[in-house]
Amino acid sequence: MHSVSNKYTMKNKYKTQAEKYEYISKQHGGYYRHNFTDHAYLYNLYFPPKAVFSHLKDNIENLVLNYPMAQNALAELIGEIIQQPGERIVVGNGAAEIIKILSGHLAKKIIVPVPSFNEYANAAPKNHVVEFPLEFPSFQLDIDKFASEIIKVKADIAVVVTPNNPTSLLVPKADLIRLAQKLEKHNCMLIIDESFLDFAENKVQISLEQDIDKYPNMAILKSMSKAYGICGLRIGYLLTANLKFAAAVRNGIHIWNINGFAEEFMRILPRYKQEFEASCERVKSDRDIFYKKLSAIEGMTVFKPDANYIFCRLPDTALSGPEITKRLFIKHNIYIKDSAEKTQPDADRYIRIASRTNEENSKLIVALKDVMYLKS
To answer: What's the domain range around 94?
Structure first.
């Protein structure tokens, strides 16, 4: 699953490992075609089970030959998974489609704590986005300062990603509730991106999905690709009790935005609840072991992760994040993400590493130690 080697390896795009790095670093997917270990993208490696693929194969003719369902019926499928009425749900072709609508079309001014997932800022027109710096060096979100800035710049949409990407840090539920309440009288919708929440402890208690009806200016956004390991199927959803806001988002989506394979996956997903929960526990177990091993590297600052990836500040005497990322790929065929393009202080001193299997994580530790310093 999420294989790192493939018979369709595209050798004609590059002649050397250095050229391969330059090529890969400009791509946004299709990594499985290029035979390297991907510690950059953030998958659940242990889901879906084989039975899901067998089911899709067995139904491939109908899924390919027929029109999929449209939005209302799709919302009912998600509603069954998350126990919410379909009228509160908008289903996107990945969360990215919904982000484009929120940032690019609905928001007159959107505000995002940074560093964060770049797409919220990238999808907004010029001068429509405000980046709010997280506390440094802790990368915590100061809710009161954030609320003040939102009100000051008159943002109509505010975004909080929890656990945040790239920091892997959770924002406490009580803080998010307080933030929503502070913003309610200022006509600001609070978008809480819970895409990685399945990998946090006590996720049911800390999710705001089941409390959504209490907060009319709140919406939950979730990419299912991450938690369910289905990046190629492209499914995301927005949940809100504000039906006027749901309708505005839905209005930006075309009639058949979800393909038949994604629709069928949603239809059968409730059968695999137990397997899904077990897969998340396994991801968390691997990640926790990985966190301890990374923390043992001398001089490395490792942030305790709440998601399936780990944010690190490199030792001051080590090479920069971009240099280490490049050397790791060229010498060991392992790909990670540096933070050089993130909006944050000392961005080139930070890296984000996705947790994979214990064996792959152990190999990465050895490789990282090998490339971190210039050898005399």
So the answer is: 50-272
